[in-house]
Design brief:
The protein has about 450 residues and is an alpha/beta fold. It is about 40% helix and about 20% strand. The protein has 2 domains: about 250 residues, Alpha-Beta Barrel (nicotinate phosphoribosyltransferase); about 180 residues, Alpha-Beta Barrel (TIM Barrel). It is globular, with a radius of gyration of 26 Å.
C-alpha cells in the first residue's frame, strides 16, 4: 500500500461526518472552496501549487478491501458506510487556478462540487497537498526575485519533513523558478534537471585533499564541481588550480567550486582571484550553507562573485512561515449559499470567481472577488479542470507551468517584488458578494 494515495489519509471526522450525512440522506451537491485567510508575515503574495497532485488523488480515489476490513475492525463505522466506501469513486467537478498563478487572501484557488459526503471526505488530503506546495513555492519565489537571474538549486531533501515533502518541495521550487534539484527522484518523476557536487565526507575519506579532488574528477569528468571548504578554503582553491595540468591532459575541465561555510562573500572574492590567476576564469562559484532569500540578497548586494546558489532547509521547510492559514470551506449546499461567521474566520458565501484587472502596461492592478454568476471585468482566474470525475485536458508540463509562473512574476507590481513587507495588494469584494453575504446572514 502506498500511504500517500490512500483514501484513509484523512481526518477521522471526515468519515464520521460522512456516516452521518449518509444516514440522514444528505447527499445533494456541496460546494467547497480552498483559500488562504491571510498572508504569512513578510509575504506579499502567494503562488498556487499542488493542483496536479490533487487531481491525481481525486482521479484515483478508492478504498481498498484491506482498508475496508480494517475500518470494519475498528467498530467505529456501520456497515452501510462501508458499503458506500467500497464503491467510492470521485464523480465531482473541480475548478481551479493554474499552478504558478499569483493569488491573495480570500481568493479561492480550487473549488470542488460533489455530493456532500464525497466532497467532505477529500478535504484533508486536498488541504495537505495545496498547503504544502503553495507554501514552498511562495517561499522559493522570494529567492528567485532576489537572485537576479542567477541559478538556484534545491538542496533541501535531507532536512525535509519526510520523503513526500522533499520530493514535492523539489517540484514546487522548480515551478517557482529554481533551475533544478539535487533530489534524484525529482529528476525521474518530474523531469527536473539534477545538480550535485560532493560531500565533505568524500574529502575526509581521502588522506590527501588533492587526491580527493582528482578522484572525483576522474569519476565525474563532465561535472567537476569541487567542494573546497572542508579544511581551509583558499588553500583548497590553490590545490584545485594545481590539478589543472593533470586534468587537462586527461581532457577534463574544472566546471566550478562550491563554498559551504564561513563568510561566503569574502571567500568568494578570494577564491575568484585564485581561480582567475590560475587560468580558471571559466570556473563558476556555487554557494550553499543555510541560505535563504535574505542571505542571497545580502550576497547579491555585496557584489560577491557568486554564480549560483543552493538553497536547502529554509526553502524546503519554509522555515519562517511553515504553514499557511488555509481553509476548505462549505460555500453552498443543495443550492443554498452557506457562510461561516466565526470571529476572525468569517467566509464569503457561494460559488465565487476572481477577476484580475491589469494596468496600462500589463501589470496587475487589482482583483475582484464576486459570485460566479456576477460576470466581472478582467481575467477570470478559476477554470474547469475536472467534470464528473474526469480530467478535461491533459496535464500541463512542468516547463509550461514554469513559463506561466515567470509571466506572472513579470506582471506583479514592482512594490510586491521586495522580500520586505509591502503595501497590501487590492482585492475588492464586489457589491454583489457583499449583498449575498448580507442575505445569508439574515436568512433570506
Amino acid at each position: 500500500m502506498n500511504p500517500s494515495n490512500s483514501a484513509l489519509l484523512t481526518d477521522l471526522y471526515e468519515l464520521t461526518m460522512a456516516q452521518a450525512y449518509r444516514e440522514q440522506g444528505m447527499e445533494e451537491a456541496a460546494v467547497f472552496e480552498f483559500f488562504v485567510r491571510k498572508l504569512p508575515p513578510h509575504r506579499n503574495f502567494l503562488v498556487a501549487a499542488g493542483l496536479e497532485q490533487v487531481l491525481d488523488f481525486l482521479s484515483g480515489l478508492q478504498v481498498t478491501q484491506e482498508e475496508l476490513a480494517w475500518l470494519d475492525r475498528t467498530g467505529l463505522f456501520r456497515s452501510e458506510l462501508l458499503r458506500y466506501l467500497e464503491t467510492l469513486r470521485f464523480t465531482g467537478d473541480v475548478e481551479a487556478v493554474a499552478e504558478g498563478t499569483v493569488f491573495f487572501p480570500h481568493e479561492p484557488i480550487l473549488r470542488v462540487v460533489a455530493p456532500l459526503p464525497m466532497a467532505q471526505l477529500v478535504e484533508s488530503r486536498i488541504m495537505n497537498l495545496l498547503n504544502f506546495q503553495t507554501m514552498v513555492a511562495s517561499k522559493a519565489v522570494r529567492s528567485v526575485l532576489v537572485a537576479g537571474g542567477k541559478p538556484l538549486i534545491d538542496f533541501g531533501l535531507r532536512r525535509a519533513h519526510g520523503a513526500e515533502a522533499g520530493l514535492l518541495a523539489a517540484r514546487a521550487s522548480y515551478l517557482a523558478g529554481f533551475s533544478g534539484s539535487a533530489t534524484v527522484l525529482a529528476g525521474m518523476a518530474y523531469g527536473i534537471p539534477l545538480y550535485g557536487t560532493m560531500a565533505h565526507s568524500f574529502v575526509q575519506a581521502h588522506k590527501d585533499e588533492v587526491q580527493a579532488f582528482e578522484h572525483f574528477a576522474l569519476a565525474q569528468p563532465d561535472n567537476v564541481v569541487l567542494l573546497i571548504d572542508t579544511y581551509e578554503t583558499e588553500t583548497a582553491a590553490k590545490k584545485v588550480v594545481s590539478l589543472v595540468p593533470l586534468l587537462t591532459a586527461k581532457g577534463i575541465a574544472v566546471k566550478g567550486v562550491r563554498l559551504d561555510s564561513g563568510d561566503l562573500a569574502d571567500h568568494a572574492r578570494k577564491v575568484r582571484r585564485i581561480l582567475d590567476e590560475g587560468g580558471l576564469s571559466h570556473a563558476q562559484i556555487l554557494a550553499s550553507g543555510n541560505l535563504d532569500e535574505y542571505r542571497i540578497q545580502a550576497l547579491i548586494d555585496s557584489r560577491a562573485p557568486i554564480d549560483s546558489f543552493a538553497v536547502g532547509t529554509a526553502m524546503t521547510t519554509s522555515s519562517d512561515a511553515p504553514a499557511l492559514d488555509c481553509a476548505y470551506k462549505l460555500q453552498e449546499y443543495a443550492g443554498r449559499p452557506c457562510r461561516k461567521r466565526s470571529e476572525g474566520k468569517a467566509t464569503w458565501p457561494g460559488r465565487k470567481q476572481v477577476y484580475r484587472s491589469y494596468a496600462d502596461r500589463g501589470g496587475f492592478d487589482y482583483d475582484v472577488l464576486t459570485p460566479l454568476d456576477d460576470r466581472g471585468q478582467g481575467e477570470p482566474l478559476l477554470h474547469p479542470v475536472m467534470k464528473e470525475g474526469r480530467r478535461l485536458a491533459p496535464s500541463p508540463s512542468l516547463t509550461d507551468l514554469r513559463g506561466h509562473m515567470a509571466a506572472q512574476l513579470a506582471r506583479i507590481p514592482e512594490s510586491l517584488r521586495t522580500i520586505e513587507t509591502a503595501p497590501t495588494y487590492e482585492v475588492r469584494i464586489s457589491p454583489a458578494l457583499q449583498a449575498l453575504a448580507k442575505a445569508v446572514d439574515h436568512g433570506l
